[in-house]
């Protein structure tokens, strides 16, 4: 073993790695929660997160079954594996909750988000904004002599990348829907 590597168990670590090897990793998980579509249910679900100090990175909710009065809440949250398991268990025990699915661990899923970007600019910045929008498949949904509003659907990472490229070109405002997700296959 070289002087630069320290062997712990079956994993090799650099002597310069200052991370705590016993610290748990924070993970991001996408949860799909099927609930009764009735007054106060969303507040109760969100109250579970806020009351215990869990963070919500993205939240979407809409009715998905009108006949059975069911809604689907899609929540992107972060935590250690133990915290994620605790969140799922606590959600599953709530009375208006019918199903809790962790799309992150249940297999491949499709995740999309809708975003609107207001970009103000003239001259070359305006031309560059239109060129980048075409590359990212963003659509112009409003245009004035001083600004554009672009609409884009994609992964949260794609939305973030487009926003970063638009900042120096005059990005003024962003509106995001939050993640909508479904598991792939049957």
UniProtKB/TrEMBL annotation:
- What is the designated name of this protein? Acetolactate synthase small subunit
- Which Pfam family, just one, is annotated for this protein? ALS_ss_C
Q: Name one GO biological process term.
A: isoleucine biosynthetic process
EC number(s) stated in the UniProt entry for this protein? 2.2.1.6
- Has keyword Magnesium? no
Q: Which InterPro entries match?
A: Acetalactate_synth_ssu, Acetolactate_synth/TF_NikR_C, Acetolactate_synth_ssu_C, ACT-like_dom_sf, ACT_dom, AHAS_ACT, AHAS_small-like_ACT
Q: Gene Ontology terms, cellular component aspect? A: cytosol
UniProt family annotation: Belongs to the acetolactate synthase small subunit family.
Reactions catalysed according to its record? 2 pyruvate + H(+) = (2S)-2-acetolactate + CO2
Sorted keywords for this record are: Amino-acid biosynthesis, Branched-chain amino acid biosynthesis, Transferase
Which Gene3D superfamilies does its entry note? 3.30.70.260, ACT-like. Chain A, domain 2
Q: State the function annotated in the UniProt record.
A: Catalyzes the conversion of 2 pyruvate molecules into acetolactate in the first common step of the biosynthetic pathway of the branched-amino acids such as leucine, isoleucine, and valine.
Oligomeric state and interaction partners are given as: Dimer of large and small chains.
Its annotated pathway? Amino-acid biosynthesis; L-valine biosynthesis; L-valine from pyruvate: step 1/4; Amino-acid biosynthesis; L-isoleucine biosynthesis; L-isoleucine from 2-oxobutanoate: step 1/4
Domain ACT: start-end pairs? 30-105
GO MF entries: acetolactate synthase activity; acetolactate synthase regulator activity
